[in-house]
Amino acid sequence: MKAAFLLIGRKEELKRIRENVAKGRHTLLEGRIGIGKSHLLRYLEKSLKRAIYVERIYPLKAALLDILKHLHQHGRLKSPPDGGRDWETLSRKFTRLHVKSLAELVVKQMKGRRYILLLDQLEAVTPAITATLNQLLSCSLVIGAASKLKEAHRKVWWAFDLIELPPLTRE
Q1: d(CA 143, CA 17)
Q2: Is-contact 20 26, C-beta < 8 A?
Q3: What is the mean pLDDT of residues 28-42?
């Protein structure tokens, strides 16, 4: 029997996230390192249907491969390309793709299927990643986490409801 995944002291934040999910609104958790952003995303992965947790967005190719691997593991990879259906074979084929083609494949696989992407460590977003992040925002609901947002990428952050995670109290 699996141990329960505990979440302590984040009722208000969780309520707001669930409201945003119901409204189809992207959400961004911001807080200092060690505050519990990743833990909250992991909790959401266990409690939300069709949620895909991505540990880091950089390097982008690895993040996109993680999404495809998740879809494959859960039998949700639509029409895999010729060359086999096992992940090892597919992974070799996908790894050869350019990042732009890989991003287009991910978007195609996710479009209209109501996935929730849980993207951790968004402070690593670079100008090159913002275009792909915008594509992901268009085909899925995104709940992200970052320790600090780069002002240079505010064209991406405007699409999110920002939730600042304060330190937990002893109460």
Answers
A1: 8
A2: yes
A3: 95
**Cβ within 8 Å of residue 32, ≥6 positions away:** 147, 167
Both structure tokens of 60: 């982008």
pLDDT over 50 at 1, yes or no: no
Which residue type sits at 149?
L
Residue pair 58/65 in contact by the 8 Å Cβ criterion: no
Work out the percent of the chain whose per-residue pLDDT is above 70. 93
- Give the span between the Cα atoms of 72 and 74, in whole angstroms: 5
- Of 131, 129, 138, 135, which Cα lies nearest the Cα of 146? 129
Global pTM?
0.92
Does residue 85 register a pLDDT over 90?
A: no
Residue 117, classed as helix, strand or coil, is: strand
Residues 6+ apart with CB under 8 A from 167: 32, 35
Residue for token pair 């109290």: 169
